[in-house]
Amino acid sequence: MADTSTSRPKVAKTDAEWRAELTPEQYHVTREHGTERPFTGPYLNEKRKGMYVCVSCGNPLFTSDTKYDSGSGWPSFYAPASKGAVSEHEDGSMFMRRTEVRCSACEAHLGHVFDDGPNPTGQRYCMNGCALKLTPKEEKDGA
What we know:
Distance between the termini: 32 Å
Radius of gyration: 15 Å
Oligomer: single chain
């Protein structure tokens, strides 16, 4: 079986560089581990095909083929785009134990993963929409 992990180098920038490149909401979510309000972010109802990449560094994170409506108020996916696209970390904030999901290339906070998703993985990668950017798949004309 082929290794599908990402081979992107680690992205390291200063706080000033992140602030200059990201909107205030993107900075708060990705660099300060914030959360956008449910049902307010982009991509919640997005139906276009394509690749969801990290808004901070462009690392491919999730394909539209794994996106589903979880009813949670945030875009949800049942699997990352590749084995090494994201990293998972224990999160004990908010008086609960959760698993935080970060971009493996730049450590941007993306959201959390839960064990209540659909088949085939049973995972729900509940992501902040403002931490993602959709690169739409070009539709082919004709046959």
